[in-house]
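Lecture 7, part B: from sequences to assemblies.

Below are the input chains for today's worked example.
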Amino acid sequence: MDRKEWPLWEVFIRSRNGLDHKHCGSVHAADPSMALKNARDVFTRRMEGVSVWVVRADDIVASDPDAKPEMFDPAEDKIYRHPTFYTLPDEVNHM
Amino acid sequence: MEASISVASEAHLEYVLRIADSSLILGHRLSEWCGHGPVLEEDIALTNVALDLIGQARLLYAYAGTLDSKGRGEDRFAFERNESEFRNVTIAELPNGDYGFTIMRNFLFLAFQRELWAVLQASDDSQLSKIASKSLTETRYHVQHASDWVIRLGDGTDESHARTQRALDVLWPYTAEFFSASTIDGGDVGPAWSTLENRWSSVVRPVLDVATLQVPAPTAFLSRGKEGIHGEHLTPLLAEMQYLQRVYPNCDW
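Predicted structure of the full complex, as structure tokens:
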């Protein structure tokens, strides 16, 4: 019998309106609608979310862990890239 | 005068217990899948449904306690009644069978329960209407979950189709009980269940069509769980569910 695994989907949940969707885990599912339901059942049992995204794990293009030095180290000593010179108005939340 | 009032409230209590017991017994059956689901995601999905059903039963038992001349609370309703005192529809107590059977039973019963909640929302009984509105949002999702799976399995492989059709053949005759005439139906409390048949049918049949399943011909078989006349499967279920309270009466944890 054919016992192929269902593909893997990454799950992103927005916990409150105004916040970003955050990655929270993954589920297996045969298609998008099943993936969405599985994500709801597995990850929002304790009122964790108001919105769910699912993305096929295969469709995510990820950086190569071995390329970490050339990808990320050069930013390490460029403190002037941080916008720390501005005072944010109070109305701007969640920056 | 007093006698007629107590007859009316007895019928009221029975009406609530039919709904509560059906939720509890099906909730207990679904809880048996915990740790045995075909995949982790479905295991959690089914136990979510089980928890929702048991939660509905708790609300209804707490309310039933206020109607009860014996002043029973939720624990006594759930754990200290015998088989013949349970008023759940028989379909709820049937053993789980395979996943297709469990899903088909959920589909057929929960679609009925959804129509019942929808009408009960407008009940003059404000407690019942509150419980119905809360439960309706849960049950909508349950029906969606079950419908999806009925379609996936029915319109799936040869084997899944055959098993789902078998489940439908076995379960369909039990759905007659939902709508069978009964002395306690109607009144001010909620709809006579017989009035829900068309609504239920118009929800269930299109899904079975999409699932390429054949609705069996009607039979004369009529189960009577809602009148307290149960099949062979409820007793062992209660023995397990009530074990702790029976062995350690009044224990608390």
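Note for the exam: The helical segments of chain A are 32-43, 68-72. Keep this in mind when comparing with the next example.
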